[in-house]
Amino acid sequence: MFTDKAVLLISCIDKPGIVAAVSTYLYEKGANIISSDQYSTNYQEGMFFMRVEFSLPGEGWTLSQVEEDFKPIADKYAMNWNLFPNSRKKRVAIFVSKEDHCLVELLWQWKAGDFECDIVMVVSNHEELRSAVTGFGLPFYHFPVTKENKLEVEKRHIELLKEHDIDVIVLAKYMQIVSPGFIEPFKDKIINIHHSFLPAFVGAKPYDRAYERGVKIIGATAHFVTEELDAGPIIEQDIIRVSHDYSAAELKRVGRMVERSVIARALQWYLQNRVIIFGNKTIVFK
Amino acid sequence: MFTDKAVLLISCIDKPGIVAAVSTYLYEKGANIISSDQYSTNYQEGMFFMRVEFSLPGEGWTLSQVEEDFKPIADKYAMNWNLFPNSRKKRVAIFVSKEDHCLVELLWQWKAGDFECDIVMVVSNHEELRSAVTGFGLPFYHFPVTKENKLEVEKRHIELLKEHDIDVIVLAKYMQIVSPGFIEPFKDKIINIHHSFLPAFVGAKPYDRAYERGVKIIGATAHFVTEELDAGPIIEQDIIRVSHDYSAAELKRVGRMVERSVIARALQWYLQNRVIIFGNKTIVFK
Amino acid sequence: MFTDKAVLLISCIDKPGIVAAVSTYLYEKGANIISSDQYSTNYQEGMFFMRVEFSLPGEGWTLSQVEEDFKPIADKYAMNWNLFPNSRKKRVAIFVSKEDHCLVELLWQWKAGDFECDIVMVVSNHEELRSAVTGFGLPFYHFPVTKENKLEVEKRHIELLKEHDIDVIVLAKYMQIVSPGFIEPFKDKIINIHHSFLPAFVGAKPYDRAYERGVKIIGATAHFVTEELDAGPIIEQDIIRVSHDYSAAELKRVGRMVERSVIARALQWYLQNRVIIFGNKTIVFK
Amino acid sequence: MFTDKAVLLISCIDKPGIVAAVSTYLYEKGANIISSDQYSTNYQEGMFFMRVEFSLPGEGWTLSQVEEDFKPIADKYAMNWNLFPNSRKKRVAIFVSKEDHCLVELLWQWKAGDFECDIVMVVSNHEELRSAVTGFGLPFYHFPVTKENKLEVEKRHIELLKEHDIDVIVLAKYMQIVSPGFIEPFKDKIINIHHSFLPAFVGAKPYDRAYERGVKIIGATAHFVTEELDAGPIIEQDIIRVSHDYSAAELKRVGRMVERSVIARALQWYLQNRVIIFGNKTIVFK
């Protein structure tokens, strides 16, 4: 039963009457629309995207009832849709390696009450960040990864994540390329952060190459993980300005700063059910 | 008759069913909702704000018919509402004194096709910018203003603006304080731009005082003009970073840069009917 | 003895030959200039400011020797000057009340190795942040402050700070107005952070008033503390963009974000001896 | 003869005593150092870069005399060096095709007195922008370019530019790849502007591809032209934030905005002799 708020996310082929159908349905159920965002595109696809946040002040409601009720409308318009009650906090797992900047930012904002979620666990292929994690009262799972055991470890990851009913996985500087077999069961639920440069420096030591080229801005991109490396739908990006007198080490430090703010915003929007994936892009209703 | 697009702006006290009523109405008229933004607040007021952009593909429609049709719904919810057909471009008058930076930015973006409006005239209390204006093929009206003739000139301004059916007046560095008698007939239709500092420097020579205090950012604010000087609803703000080695003159130059981009964005949003005024603030649906 | 790096900060009335005198002196001592920034102004004052970072590869040098050597040159030009050897880390005390965002940011960056300093202690007028501080292995001093005991407590603060040889005090959301008697012994050594708005909202509940006015940016200012409240020389400022759908609570959250990045940059520049105070402004050699 | 200001730009292998030698030289000549920036790197190269701005109040000085005087010092340290008297304004040629946004920005800032230079001519491979240019009282040269006549046209470009003693060429959306034969005589003197994306989209229709990937920021890069396409030393970069509801056309419009501000800043710094090229990067003394 939920008596407070929920978010409905919809994507489907655009047709007249969708907003009317959804809002009339909610009105008749006694819901109060708190905010409603809608975006249509006729670029190639003619797609319709909607986010409705509403409260259901009545009693006796169950989530499954609302879902059952809404099904005929959803079917009529062939919607992809999800209903997220606020009472059901998303369950988050954070994957890290040795660098702590993204991890600590997320844990601090979470402890400060800025994230509406349960951070359930931190998983790492190294030991280094154990005390940082347990200091927040969170379990820390260490799975050493080698070329040989990688797929086996990923199976154990999946078991652990399933067992704890994890909704979203944040790769917060997890320096392992995850395999398709890991991505598949968590499709559209794995968020990664990586540095970004203008222009791009593909390959090893990007900060050294950015230094050599004398870039004037350092960026970061948070995106969903897909099979193609670092090419999934972008959730958020940002940059910080630098100058010639930043060493490669200082560029890295700036990179850490921009990475931690970008991953935090991306997770926030995901937790608030503001992000819809379509093809290889996102709609982010801010 | 309009067969293309229109924007409906609504503000009223929040009640269940408003979105349903509006979207069902549009659906039944055969309209296609292109985008819909809605914002509700229960901070003090419990107000509801909505912007719907839609197309009306049918024929035989007149604006007055739609307005007449929608009236019962609007009345039921005691809405403040406006319907803006795209076919009716807003008519803009720009007021300037001697500085050209905001004027030229607006005229250039307009000529580049970025503003959907008719810039109808430029009014000035000085002669300096005549050729800049006539070079764009626009009429330039020069009304010298003195302490003695100020109210008389404002009457002639009002006549001229009424005669040309002006929808919005941009004070693009018009260095005169306009009187209540001028504001009243154009309530919520006069946009001003002015520099902003952190902290604020009230009084004369703000750039000199900002220099003396060593400010690190220079800002600008675009706002609607109300009787209280520079205290009307804010439409847009921005800043540019500066350092100790900017002279007061260079701070002014930076101020010009930020002023022209802020006034251009504020006008753009107004022209696209994205701005609703409520009390002393704006809702800007971007 | 110091065999590595040092920074020399100079301010004096501008005259020909200063750069030559300083650089020739350093050359003759065998120093290698790593970076040198110089700024002159003929706005009113005709002042000269210089920051030189150099290494002294030779042996047998003592700080007092260099100071003694340089004195005739300094006297000739009536310089205000300070020599900061890198080997002597600045000793920092952080003052807090109940809000932890600035504190945690500073401690995290310090632990990450980004600040070259010793954070020696945290002082608070409340108990709330004790465990956050002791978790970093730092002493936490709690001095409850009342209207009656305020001056007495400040005396004990001063004793404690003197006893621990503190170089810089960061008021990281210390919600007490410090009195002139506290400022005087730490003149130009107390850094404060506070929110800033465009326009300024003087008085109580600034975020509520910013919400009511519908501001589009939220800012923060780090400055040195002087007797006039929040009017001391500005070290750094920044802003984050917001929109109408931020509640007053969310504006506060954004305020925390911008405050913590601004105070961290201000402290960083101070620790790197990049900040010279002149009159009521700063020269920051970045 | 020059009795006012000049800038000296120096790059050489770092050795002790360079700053002392330069500043002592200037002092002995009676020069007053207005500002002095210096940057050394021991990353790989161990290079030294310096920008000194000074005034020479005395009479009877000629540029060639100063150059002759300074030569022994320059030779001693094997400097690359250039002396730029303020009295000798840089002569600028702007190359354009059909898009006017960068051109108009540069001409407007120039007319506003923000650029200390002579804009001598505008060259285009199209007719479209003739009146925009002649309206500023500038000559407009139209050279249609085909695959067949390209090298021939470039020869005529070079003749024209040499004849008018051009110091810097700004490719302000000149949609032709210039050949090595054109670059060679104007090495380090051709500035180009182009869009930049995170991640990079190499190939045709980058804005369409950025739209498809749903990028959240649109950038621009100003750089010196080298033989490798768009890979020369970066002078300045910036970005503007966008969202999912920007069409590909609107992304292009944002691209124009960021391009014009970036090219203007890059040209400004070049005109003020703030830019030193070293390898494939720039040192920009701001």
UniProtKB/TrEMBL annotation, chains A, B, C, D:
Q: Which UniProt keywords apply?
A: Hydrolase, One-carbon metabolism, Purine biosynthesis
Q: Which GO terms describe its biological process?
A: 'de novo' IMP biosynthetic process; one-carbon metabolic process
Q: What is this protein called?
A: Formyltetrahydrofolate deformylase
Start and end residues of each ACT domain:
7-88
Q: Which SUPFAM superfamilies match?
A: ACT-like, Formyltransferase
Protein's gene: purU
Enzyme's top EC category: hydrolase
Q: Which family does it belong to?
A: Belongs to the PurU family.
Report TM segments.
none
Question: Which HAMAP family does the record associate with it?
Answer: PurU (MF_01927)
Q: Which InterPro entries match?
A: ACT-like_dom_sf, ACT_dom, Formyl-FH4-Hydrolase_C, Formyl_transf_N, Formyl_transf_N_sf, PurU, PurU_ACT
Q: Which reaction does it catalyse?
A: (6R)-10-formyltetrahydrofolate + H2O = (6S)-5,6,7,8-tetrahydrofolate + formate + H(+)
Its domain of life reads Bacteria
Q: Does the keyword Iron apply?
A: no
- Give the molecular function GO annotations: formyltetrahydrofolate deformylase activity
As recorded in UniProt, its EC number(s) are 3.5.1.10
The record's listing under Gene3D superfamilies reads: 3.30.70.260, Formyl transferase, N-terminal domain
> CDD domains of this UniProt entry?
ACT_F4HF-DF, FMT_core_Formyl-FH4-Hydrolase_C
The protein's job, in short, is: Catalyzes the hydrolysis of 10-formyltetrahydrofolate (formyl-FH4) to formate and tetrahydrofolate (FH4).
PANTHER family from the xrefs? FORMYLTETRAHYDROFOLATE DEFORMYLASE (PTHR42706), FORMYLTETRAHYDROFOLATE DEFORMYLASE 2, MITOCHONDRIAL (PTHR42706:SF1)
Q: Which residues form the active site?
A: D230
Give the source species: Cohnella fermenti
NCBIfam families recorded: PRK06027.1 (NF004684), PurU (TIGR00655)
Q: In which pathway does it act?
A: Purine metabolism; IMP biosynthesis via de novo pathway; formate from 10-formyl-5,6,7,8-tetrahydrofolate: step 1/1
